[in-house]
Every structure is written in structure tokens, then in C-alpha cells.
Amino acid sequence: MAQVPPYQALKEAPTEIRRAATVALVCSSVSRAIGILTSTIIIATLPTWFPGLLAYQPLPIALVVLTVGSAIVGGKGSRIRERIASRDFEKARSASLSAAILGFIIAGGVPGILYLYLYTRVGNVMVKRRPDDPKTIYLLPHPSEGLFLGRYIGWAAAYLLVLYVGYTQLPTGLRGVSNWLSPVLGVHFNTLIVAVYLIFTNPLSYPPVLQLWITAGLLGGVIAGGKVGRGFMVGLAVFLSTLGAMGLAALSIFRGVTSGAFPNIPPPPPGFSLIAAATGPVASDLLPLFLQASSPTDPAFIQSMALTLARNAGLIFAIVTISGRAASLIWLGSIDLAKYVLVLIHGKPGLKENRTIVDRPVLKTAVILLMLLPIFAIPHFSTTSPPFQAPVPGPYEQRLDVALGMLGAPNTTLQLTNLDLSSKGLIQNNNYAGANIAAFIVNNNDSQALGNGQQSQMLQIISQPALITVYAGDPKTAAAESAAVEAQFSQALGVQFTTIFSLSMGGQGTATIYAPNPEISNYDALTKLMALLPSQSFSSLITPANIQNMKYFAAIGIVPITINGVKFNGFSFDMNIQFPRQYFKGGIHQLDLKTLLGFQNNIVGDPAANVSLVSMSFQPGTVLYSPLFPNPFYNNATSTYYLNVTSSSRPDFVAKFNYPFAPDIVIQKTSTPALGPVGTTHIVVVTIQNLDNVTVTNLNINDAQTSSNYAQTLQISPSGAQALQAAILAPGNSLTLSYTVTTGSSGVYVLSPARVNFFWTAPNSTKISYTINTDPTEITSLMGPVTQFTRTFTDFQPYSFLLLIPLLLTPVIETYRLIKRRSQRKKEKEMQSFYSAPSPPSSQGLPKSPDSGAGSTTNNPPPP
Predict the structure, then answer these.
(1) What are the backbone angles phi and psi of residue 848, rounded to the nearest 5°?
(2) In this structure, are residues 552 and 449 in contact, taking their beta carbons and an 8 Å threshold?
């Protein structure tokens, strides 16, 4: 008879031993799961947990005890399982009892119950043990090793996925910051922004980051396969690699700043949104702390900032490592499932009867994870309430001002003052007493006046709808009044607002900026804003759809408007629109204001308004041919045409004028291509075309190229201001000026406008000088993960060669472990072959020893 091998697989052990080992595995897994859960809760509540721990509050202390206790008790379960497999039942039973006691005291009770049950199972094995039982030592199963170099391949795949999504799917606000500052601070600033987004975004409040890191953990863990620790290590490596990329980028920026003077920061490029940056990931967590802080140097504020960043990074770490563990379980479960299916197909009765899914805890866990996985893909819907509608308000004053400059570009200002908006929910109560400004604004890249003054840079960079309040007086009182005003506008407009800034302006008071939440477009905001206005006012002339591609600025609320020396402190509406340029030459022209500005209705006064006045300003010297008295009226001293439509039956503003406006001379500054990867050479061309039938003279073109802000990252050839002169430019002819620029960083480069000066002789022999500027030209430079890796390696030599260590060392280590595992398994097979050799004939007739359990191979021990 064959000898009983002293080493056998655990699956060949008696039923009682196998069940006890399974219970030990469950005890260990549950304890570790509780530890992971409590540590995740600690990380998620870190800003409040840490101060509570310092104050010795019960809940923070209990979480620490549970986390440490679960880790200790979980480790005991693994050792108990090994002792059960090696048939050291006395020590296993004693350790189970001590683990049960610890489970009840410091691990929350559930592990205590499980270990107490394990204590009974081990006792059951000991009761059924007989003195003549075989001394076989059962080997714990070897988990699947997964793919060769699985950890390395999983890390690389998950890391590239994270970087690719980070670079290509960067949120609008953070992309705007990167596009603004990367051309100044260098190519690594983009990587810094991407890494900050990936590491310090709160995944619980921003689902795309949560889904990205879950996917990265699952991808890396599935590729790594094998032990659960492999998934953990892949997730850890991806997290640390992203953190390392952020550190290297910060080092590069710091080195560049300290090696020379701090660069001048240019104005943000067109389209930059302060609101999108302030309400996006990371900033939305930090700005409320900044708003509540008494000072940026306050230790409590610094602690809150550090704990918030640590919480966000800790949650990312927990998510990616837990996902990696889950993916490894899915791999192991898939292997078990494949084996189980093969057994069913081949039809081995013994295995079908004794091996079910219930006996495979890894497979069960994987199936449960696969069932829960769709939860992460549930879309998040948000709803917005419709605008609040109310009856038409009471009497007010409305004014439409149109100014035609020498270049024939109509600039229109529409003002409605002293509005009664109480029926809309806007009531001018005591909360407005200290407000210099309390207005909802929509700025579509218009840099003209707010009221009668030039906009500040703050207003120019608010390219998304916002509610702005500026209060004088005590900051605490101003904050309460501003919050009440915000509630009124929220009800009237049908949108919810989020506070993004509250800044002290010294003696001028406190400025607070609120952003719509959810974010709405300029078009939608303008539609909601104009819905608050009287339906018969001049505002009905303007259709938001017709001006959405123009530059305009609109505001409603307490707006600083002064007309004819009178300052209005009531609710007002102010709107400025820059219409496309019109081309005129000397001679008599017919002017139709409705056609010129593309109004949808005739200009008719509202009977409910106290005043409805239209004014149009011309260049001095314009001769106007129209009835002058009593209405309309032309003021020769100011070259202004007035039409009072309150008492007039005129359906529109029509007149004839004679004035030599600028000829049709077009100047353009373009870049070819307009966008490209870092290092692309762009050809910048300034073109001047004479599309008229007259000749211009003494033409001068000057192009400053760009400001010195981009000197470190933009190469221009030839460098320096470019100039071109021409004595005449005949009809149909054109001139060009060109040079090349090569980008050295990602972001948006804003080139300076080109300027053209020329003269034109009018039909009356008057020589008129004109100056035309182009719009700023933008060059967009793009960067991806591959570019960043190569630039990092190049910029950080010679110590950048350290980046090659994981690339070279990992295959060596994996190869060594593979050879070592195969050598160990070869020895085990040789030992099993030796003990399973045929016994001497004298032992053939010996009686069979009692079976110690189902599923075991029981024979007499080998003779001495």
C-alpha cells in the first residue's frame, strides 16, 4: 500500500480541518475589512477627526482603537489558519480564544463572535482526533501567480490611464489656470496642475475622479493578478508615481523661479473663467476654509488646509488600493470559476459533489464585487428650477445710447433705471443699505464700462455668470446682508448660488462673488436676466440668440449708474453690446437704427415708463439731414441725435448723415497652425487688405509680437518688434508681415495686437489719419503624458536616470521570484513522489486505519 505523504494540499484534508481553516480565513478577512473600513472613515473625516482626537473625544479615539485592534486580530487569523493546516490544534485553539477576547474588547465585537466560533470549530477537530490519525501536514493553497511581470505591467497600464485622463479630461477651471500660467512658469506647471487634480480632488464630491481611480485600481489589480497584496502594491505604486510627478514638477518650477526674477504674470487669456476655477475640484474644498479664516497665517487655517488636502489624498489612496485588492480577488475568483466550469464539463463526479461555489470563498467574494461594481457607474443627475415669473413692474426710466466711432463700430448701451422688481422677488430692503454694488452680471468678453467707469480686471476675468456684492462697513454685518441679497436673486432667477470669494477691499468695503450652481452658460443666464425686465421695454429689442457671439456685458441689481449728473441707487439694468464694424465713406447715407443693430422690433416707448429716450452720438462735424424740432433733436455742439419715444409715434430711428468714416481696410493677425503640441513652430502673419475702391497712403504696420512674460518659453524668429511701411495701398491690394514662433510649454500664448496707421484723403481734400488694431492672437500649445515623461527625463538629468530604476529593477526581481517559486515547487513534487512510492509486500495486508474525515487519504504511517 502507498505511504501517506507527510505533505498534502489543504483541499485533501478532512472536512473538519478544511472548515476550520475556512472559518479562520473568514475571521482574518472580516477583521481586516473592518480595519480598512474604519481607517477609511478616519481619512474621510480627517479635518474633524484630528481635532477631536487632540481633544480626547470618544468617537475619534474609538476609531483609532478599532483600526489598530482589527489589524492585530486580522493578523492572528492568518497565523491560526497556518497552525490548523500544520495540525497544531492546541496552539490554534488557544490563539482563537485570545483573538476572540481581543475581538470583543478592541475590534468592535464582530471579530470576537467569529473567533469564538472558530474556537468551537478547532475544538470539534480536536474531539474527533484519534491517536492513530496520520501526521500529514496540509499545505495552504498557492494563489495564482498571475501574469509574468504582472505587477509591472499593471502599474504601467494604470499609471498611463490616470495620466491620459488627467491630461485630456482636465476640468475647465483647472485647464484655464494651466493655459494661463504654463506659458509663464514652464511646461511642468501643466503637470503640476494635472497631478494636483488627480491627487487632491475629493473623490466623494467629484464622481469623475472616483470613477477614474476605481478603474485604475481594477485595471492594475486584474493585470497583476495573484495575491491580494499584488493589487494593493499596484494601487500604491500608481498613487506614489502620480505624487512623484507632482513633486518633480514643483521642483522644476521652484528651480526656475529661484534661478531668476519672478516672472511677470500676464492678464488671463480671453475666455478664462475665475468662477470655473474657483468652483472646480480642489478649489471648492479650500476656498470655504479661506473665506472663514481670519488670516492666511492663522495656525487653525493652515491646519484645516493641510488636513483637507491630506483627507482628499488619503481617500484617493484608499480607493485605488481597495480597488486593486478587489481586482486581485476578481482574478482569483475567475481562476476558480474557470476550474469549476472545466470540472463540470469533464464530469468528475467526486469533484462535482464535494466542490461547490460555497466552498470557494475567493470566488464568492469576486462575484459579490462584480455585483456591486455597477454602483460606481450610476450617473449623477442635477436639476435646475425654472426662472421665477411675475407681473410687469411699475414705472421706470429707460435709455438707449448708440455711439458711432470713426471706424464705424456701433457701441450700444441700454439702461433701465429705478426698476420696481418687487413682483420678481427683488425687494430693496435694509439689506441693500450698505451695498455699493449688488448685481447679477453676465460678461461675454466685453472690457468696456460698468455703468460709467472702466471695468476692473476682476470683472474682466469673470467670463461666466456671477452675482457680485460690494459692501461698505463692518464685514460681519456686510456678510449677513450679502447672504440675504443672494437669497433674493436666487429666488428671482431660479438658480442656486455658491460663495466662491469674499475679499476685503480696504477702505472700499468687502467684495463677495457668488457663482451659479449648477453652472449655467452666458446665453442661459442672459435669458433668465432679461426675463426679469418689463416686457414692453427697450430690452425687447434685443434677442439673446442674436448677440451670443458678440462681446456684451449685462448687469441687473444695484448698479452704479450716473446719467446727466444724477446717480441712481435703485434697481437698474445696464447692458453694453459691441456690434460689428460698419464701413462708410464720404457722402450722404441713410441710417436705419433697427437695421444697423439687427433689432427684432421697432423702437417704441413703453407707456409704463416715465422716460424712453434714444440717443446716437456721431463724430464731431457730422452733418445730419432730418427734422430737428421738436422731436427728434440734434445737438450740433455734441453731435448727438435725440429721440424721445415716450411721446413720439415714430416706429424707428431713421436719419440721413454726411461724414467720411474709415474706408474698408481690413487688418488681421493669424497663426498657422492655431494649435499644436509643445515644440510646434507657428507662422504668424499680419495681413492688411484694401477692400475699398479708394487709395490709402503713408501706411505703417507695427507688431510688438508679444510681451516679455513669455520670454522663457516662446522662441520668436526674427525677434523684436516688426515693422513695415508702404507709401500707398491701392484698391484690391494687400501687404503681409510674417515671423515664426516656437512654443516651449503648454498653455495659451496671447500675442500682442498689431497696429496699422494710414491716411485717407476725403472728397473735400481733407486728409484724415486712422489707427486700427487687430484683436489679440492666441496660440494654443498642447501636451500629453508622453511629452511630459520625455521632458521630465530631459530636464532633470542626471538624476532623472533614477526614473529608469523601476523599469529595469522590476523585471529582474520578477524573474528571480519566478525561478525561486519553480525551484520550490520542484522540491515539493520530488518529496511527494518519494513518500508515495509503493510499500513493501508485508504491508499489503494491514487493516485500513480509521478515516479521520471525508475527503482524506488515510493509510498507515511509513515503517521506521
Answers:
(1) -75, 135
(2) no
